[in-house]
Design brief:
The protein is built from no helices and 19 strands. The protein has about 325 residues and is mainly β.
């Protein structure tokens, strides 16, 4: 309950959103396990609209090497909740229905395959989509790990969604499909007890009628070094990237300070590098992290806009963290 009513802007996209100062939600969940088969689910109602949201799923271990899973979800356009994070394609548990299928296959001692397919719909308008919409997402990953020191994987991900057209004529902005495909080749190798080498190649394509085909790629090399008999670990990366724009951006996880999550975005043209040093001392009671990272963009005289604009083509950051255990 709020002391001041929540009011939404008078826009079509907000027609079914919550407004008022009181919201009550009721829910019930279930799960059942029998041998190699399990089912689970949850049903919830928001009293502000009377709308009922539901999720139901099952997993089946067909054998030790083969498993299947399926999940159905239905979050109505007028289902209201502030803190729920239900399983789905989008970040909010509202205005979405879909069906998901996943599988995991252990082909032999070295080869494995994981994949899923997700088909979804949105019955009402949403952010940057001025009509009801639909789409799908596919992912498949083939992994080769002959021993604990070496791992290779090839991943393919495709998503097709609807979005407002970037370029159009007239007064009405049409909605169009965009199809994005991501290819990733990964290589992880433990050279010795001290050295670990990781390499990753990404290639992205994005096709939409108003713009056409856009492409992007990145190549990243990581080296992790743990000094023998010394409490020092060093992680470093150097990456190059070249994309046609933000639509073909590439997400890349990076090691950071303790409890800090970092996934910077590579787009346009340039390089990215970082180094992270961890030093443990005082009878392992203290941990010190030092990190430096930088983007160097090509053919740019400035980065960002407004008060955050940086003159030049380099954007760098320094981070320090000290943890003491008592």
């Amino acid at each position: 309950m709020y002391d001041t009513p929540l009011e939404r802007a008078d826009r079509p996209v907000n027609q079914y959103e919550f407004s008022g100062n009181e919201l009550l939600s009721l829910s019930a969940d279930y799960s059942y396990l029998y041998k190699n088969w399990s089912v689970f689910g949850e049903v919830a109602q928001s009293r502000s609209s009377g709308s009922i949201a539901q999720l139901h799923g099952m997993t089946l271990a067909v054998s030790k090497r083969f498993s299947l899973s399926a999940v159905y979800r239905n979050y109505p356009k007028d289902y209201h909740t502030f803190y729920a994070r239900g399983f789905g394609e989008f970040s909010r548990t509202i205005n979405e229905s879909g069906l998901y299928f996943g599988t995991a296959v252990k082909l032999n001692s070295a080869w494995s395959f994981n994949g899923y397919a997700d088909v979804f719909q949105r019955p009402w308008l949403s952010f940057r989509v001025d009509s009801p919409s639909d789409g799908h997402e596919l992912l498949g990953q083939l992994k080769y790990r002959p021993n604990p020191r070496l791992e290779l994987f090839l991943r393919y991900r495709e998503q097709e969604k609807m979005q407002n057209a970037r370029s159009f004529e007239g007064n009405l902005r049409p909605v169009e499909y965009f199809n994005q495909k991501v290819y990733r080749l990964g290589f992880n190798y433990r050279i010795s007890k001290s050295f670990q080498w990781k390499s990753r190649l990404d290639y992205v394509t994005d096709r939409r009628e108003s713009i056409g085909l856009q492409q992007g790629f990145s190549l990243a090399q990581d080296l992790i070094y743990t000094m023998p008999n010394k409490p020092i670990q060093i992680s470093a990366r150097y990456a190059i990237f070249d994309t046609d724009g933000f639509d073909t951006r590439i997400f890349a996880y990076e090691s950071h300070l303790q409890n800090v999550f970092s996934i910077p975005i590579y787009f346009n043209q340039g390089t990215r590098a970082y180094a992270l040093v961890r030093y443990t001392f005082w009878q392992k009671r203290c941990d010190l992290w030092l990190r430096y990272a930088a983007f160097v963009f090509s053919n740019q005289d400035g980065i960002g806009q407004g008060p955050e604009r940086i003159e030049g083509n380099v954007r760098s950051e320094v981070a320090v963290q000290l943890r003491v255990k008592f």
